[in-house]
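Suppose a classmate hands you a notebook page containing two proteins, each written out with its sequence and a corresponding row of structure tokens. How would you begin to make sense of it? This section walks through that situation. The first entry is reproduced here exactly as it would appear on such a page.
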Amino acid sequence: MLKLPLGIIISLKPIFYVLGTILVILIVSESIIGYFRHKRYQRKLATQKTLNDLIYKLKPEEFEDYIGILLGKLGYEKVKVIGGVHRADGGFDVRAEKNGQTYYVQVKKYGRKRPVHVQEVREFYGALTADHPDAKGIFITTSYFTYRFFYTAEVFAKKVGIELIDGKKLVEMMETANASNVKI
């Protein structure tokens, strides 16, 4: 057994305090940065008139129908809403095709304070690969996707090839398609 003289142990003590402090700062800063990103995102969503005025007033099944219409305006073909509160959808809300590729879409109409967690994206990916391994996935939410220091919904989705569309990107899509005037 290696025994260190008391003088060396005492001289190393400040180094351990500094290392411990750095570790605590890294852990706490992740939460603080995440908190401020969330608040900034909420403020940005609050300024999006089309999202507030249209999307948040729709019922979840109406929102799924709206996404089907929006995808049709963006050039997707054979768009069919297959989900809904009264239908067993197998984890998919919309089916569409574009350039010969089939897409299955999961839609989550959440409030600004309710993010989509990585677990929900994993569940969607599991259903997609089990039922439709040749199709691509798109996950759309009115809210945002979680972000953490190490593993996020965005990192997972990029790894497995699922496209994520948050509230901000959804508004951009609506403006691109000029779909904010669509009546449901």
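The notebook's second entry, a different protein, reads as follows.
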Amino acid sequence: MTRTEPPSTPSVLDTTVLSNFAYVDHVDVLAGLAGICTVPVVRTELQRGVDSHPYLQSALDALTAEIPVTTINDAVRSRETTARATLDAGEAQAFAMADVHDGRLLTDDGDARSFARDHGVTVVGSVGVLLAAIDAGRIDESTADEWLATWIDEISYYVPYRTIAEYR
């Protein structure tokens, strides 16, 4: 197995954000973001889910080649153990990586978002990633609106607004 160190100030994906972008078949948008990475437990969660959710295969395919799966060091493992009292395995490991390396946690899970904020870790969800992709010129606002509508209508993604303009 190749050891992959986390990027400087990593943006650490958990399964929820990867899943949303895989659903619209555009994990490539995530791969183009600065500092993007994920953790081994998230890869395992995707592997377990691909049989019932075949669209997750595109997320698995992007890992390592486009989205690095980071090596977990002792500091991350220790922080992960603490987070596991509150969060599931993937969220806990992604949180721990972001926390130890002064990064951001990319998640849509409400409990993970609250936990991270309570511990001083910046949180960005799928909508924030859409906004960043628009600002970086990777997608336009109408594409972001289309993906957001798909998530809301087809996979019961809950957000307060249906259009990107309402978040600006």
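A careful reader of the second entry would note: The mean pLDDT is 95.
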